[in-house]
Amino acid sequence: MPQLRSVVLGVGAYLPQKTLTNDELAKLVDTSDAWIVQRTGIKERHIAAEGETTSMLGEMAARDALANAGIAADDIDLIVVATSTPDWTFPSTATQIQAALGITHGVAFDLQAVCSGFVFAVATAEKFLRSGSHKRALVIGAETFSRIIDWTDRTTCVLFGDGAGAMVLEAQPSQGGADERGVLTTHLRSDGRHRAKLHVDGGPSATQTVGHLRMEGKEVFRFAVGQVTDVVKDAFAATGLTPEDLDWFVPHQANRRIIDMSAQKLGIAPEKTIATVHLHGNTSAASVPLALAVASADGRIKRGDLVMLEAVGGGFTWGSALIRW
Ligand code: UT7
């Protein structure tokens, strides 16, 4: 039966100019390039310049994705921005990006699921497009985690970076087959009991401050490898596809060891896994679209490929999106 499906028209990314290497970090806290590379795979991260905000990074990534898609900003009628580091408490970062792109029609809003944010945003935009209410969506993950990092805490400050990634989705008719282009299925989960393991110790209502990121790294690691594979299995079960059918696995870029162990647990071959964490560290909601933009630009991800997105973040939240590119 004819239906609508959300087809990827293009992806884009933006990283701030300034980089911070592991050796530079070793001058700030008691750490070393060897420890960071061995435990996380991260080699450097990008840091937003003074006055450079999340919406500015998001706008740059959005422009890159629009150019990649070959469409104009005016063609967009839905903007969903995943971020945990908005410019302001309100209005939303999405409306700031909408204005910066000169779009005065349609709707723009933020969504907050920390590192799972981009997958949650794809799932949300996809449902709008599939319902027929909107035609073309900009889905953006944009973060300036450098602003909520405690730069004296070596257990967290070496892990995170700033950046943004974006995807353009368009509602297109489909017969519903798994071989046809578009988002095939999405699966989201959350469990709020885990707040203490990964949180920010400030906020407008609780403390009237912005706060700093706090993490029990080992606990998060255990959860990320142990639990989140269920949403990937759900995506395979919903479509009848298998890890062998997959062309690319694009997980949240937090830690190379988590990426490799998750792929192994799921029976996904290492050569099908996209890892860009060495280039930008953990950029939270920006990490999956940053990885997609790299692998699309270098020719790895091609039209017709089967691509599995997966992410886990504070809350805990976790999710998957299976896409025929
Ligand atoms: O997006 C989701 C959010 N976060 C994540 O996905 C992160 C999940 N967790 C992780 O990636 C890992 O747990 C970390 C990379 C954070 C830590 O790796 P680990 O192998 O779990 O190390 P650990 O916490 O067990 O620490 C081992 C040692 C400790 O010293 P002792 O107690 O053995 O003497 C730490 O104090 O490493 C020490 N350590 C460091 N040493 C040098 C912790 N951070 C550092 C550091 N440099 N930056």
Automatic annotation (TrEMBL):
A biological-process GO annotation: fatty acid biosynthetic process
Annotated localization: Cytoplasm
Keywords: Acyltransferase, Cytoplasm, Fatty acid biosynthesis, Fatty acid metabolism, Lipid biosynthesis, Lipid metabolism, Multifunctional enzyme, Transferase
EC number: 2.3.1.180
Region (ACP-binding): 253-257
Entries under Pfam families matching the protein: ACP_syn_III, ACP_syn_III_C
Pathway annotation from the record: Lipid metabolism; fatty acid biosynthesis
Active-site feature positions: C115, H252, N282
GO cellular component annotations of the record: cytoplasm
Superkingdom classification of source: Bacteria
MF terms (GO), sorted A to Z: 3-oxoacyl-[acyl-carrier-protein] synthase activity; beta-ketoacyl-acyl-carrier-protein synthase III activity
Catalytic activity of the protein: malonyl-[ACP] + acetyl-CoA + H(+) = 3-oxobutanoyl-[ACP] + CO2 + CoA
Xref: Gene3D superfamilies: 3.40.47.10
EC main group: transferase
Domain Beta-ketoacyl-[acyl-carrier-protein] synthase III C-terminal: 237-325
Annotated Beta-ketoacyl-[acyl-carrier-protein] synthase III N-terminal domain residues: 109-192
The family this protein is said to belong to: Belongs to the thiolase-like superfamily. FabH family.
Domain notes: The last Arg residue of the ACP-binding site is essential for the weak association between ACP/AcpP and FabH.
Subunit structure: Homodimer.
Function per UniProt: Catalyzes the condensation reaction of fatty acid synthesis by the addition to an acyl acceptor of two carbons from malonyl-ACP. Catalyzes the first condensation reaction which initiates fatty acid synthesis and may therefore play a role in governing the total rate of fatty acid production. Possesses both acetoacetyl-ACP synthase and acetyl transacylase activities. Its substrate specificity determines the biosynthesis of branched-chain and/or straight-chain of fatty acids.
NCBIfam families assigned: fabH, PRK09352.1
Protein name: Beta-ketoacyl-[acyl-carrier-protein] synthase III
Taxon lineage: Bacteria, Pseudomonadati, Pseudomonadota, Alphaproteobacteria, Hyphomicrobiales
